[in-house]
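User: Second chain of the day. Same drill as before.
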Amino acid sequence: MTACIIMNRHSKHLKQLGILFSLVLCVISNYSCSGGTNKFRLSEDCQQIDSFKNIVLQVFLENSGSMNGYMIAGSEFKDAVYDLASALSSRCDTTELFFVNSMVSMYSQSLENFVRDMSPQLFQQFPGNRMNSDLADVIAQVIAKTDSNRISMLVSDFILDVPNGPVLSIKQTQVRNAVKRKIVNDKDFSVVILHLESKYSGKFNGVLQNLHRPYYIWLMGNKYLLGRLLSKEHPEDIQHGIRHQCAFTPDAPLACVIASGAATKSLKSSSRRSAHFVELKMDLCSTLQPQAYILSPVNYDTRGNNGITVEKVCQLAKADSCFTHLITLKIPNRIKPCADGLLLKAQTLPLWVDSINQDYVPIGKHIPDRTIGIRNLIQGVSDAYKEVSSCGHVDFTISAH
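Assistant: Same format as last time:
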């Protein structure tokens, strides 16, 4: 009887030891398979702070003869120009107004008068060649007058009035050179291009007609200043709307924080999880890209080959003044420690530019909704930024503990 009791107790102890041993093996196995816990941490250069004082808005209206047709009653042109110019002016310290062709002439009255009195008769009061403006020269003149605290708004139909096709390529190079020279002295110099349409009444193809014609607004200046202004006054909200938009800007660090407010995000690997998700609050206004472009995950890339992708991009409420978007990163479950970065890819020449361009043709063959040489002018800007692969980035590390 005593022997039987002893055997039962021995068997019970062995069973308990077996269970304990199995638990230890399970913990060791899970830890070795999971790889432990990593930490996601943003790099220090993510905190980009911009501060501008004595901001000047310069409005340049190109006043060649082809612009006369927009100066009619009920023209969307005047509405849109006044709407955008006054919105930007309200956020600047000073506004300066100019007419431009072969010469730049200051207009000394108010912005309201500038738009209200806009007419062929007013145009004729200012000097310069109004027969045919060389838009490559006009762009170069405006760029030369733009600096880190000065935003330039150039308004024109941007018809590249040249005698034959081969000259279009020369003007393209001229624009590229003007932009590249500016970037040397101002590394944050950027260009935003808006395509709009308006009623037009005047001679077209040698015949007096009433139709709709394209025109363009180019915004030029420091990327952070432009971004801050346009984040408050969205080009998409201009009266009568815009048809297209594109922007060319150098790469630079973006302001960013982990959405939770913590300095790091724990990435604990587990066999039950396929991926980690990290939410980042980011200020993307300095990228100058249209919302449709920013909100598409396919327009993002990473520096490394670590399997990190953008899962989702959401626009934050306007009340959040420091950051514009919430980006969700998808990170592989068993990712190894690494240094990586998130990039918003730079735009190349948009497809819509070809759809509105017309190469040089004789008078009588112009297409109303197209602009002669606009592709060459925009391509010239694009060429100046051809070595730029992203318009903003955030670097981060994933480290063990």
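Residues 1-10, 17-34 have pLDDT under 50 and may be disordered.

User: Great, on to the next one.
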